[in-house]
Amino acid sequence: MATNWHRRDVMTMAGAAALVGIDGHALAATPPDLVIKGGRVIDPSRKIDATLDIAVSRGRIIALRPSIAPGKAKTLDTTGKIVVPGLIDIHTHATVDPTSSALMLADGVTGWIETGWQGAETVESGVAAVKASPQKAALLLNIGRKGVMIGTGETMDLSLADVPAARAAIAAHRDVVVGVKARLSRNITGDHDLEVLRRAQEATRPFGIPLMIHIGQTYTPAGKLFELLKPGDIVTHMFAPPPNAIIDADGKLIPEALSARQRGILFDWGHGTRGHITWDVVDRCVQQGFLPDTLSTDWTLGGAKLDINMPTIMSDMLSFGVPLDQVVAMATINAARAFPLFKGRGTLAPGAVADIAVLELRDGIFDLIDNANGKRPATQKLFATATVLGGKLASPV
Question: Which residue intervals of the chain bear CATH 2.30.40.10?
Answer without folding.
Answer: 13-84+351-395
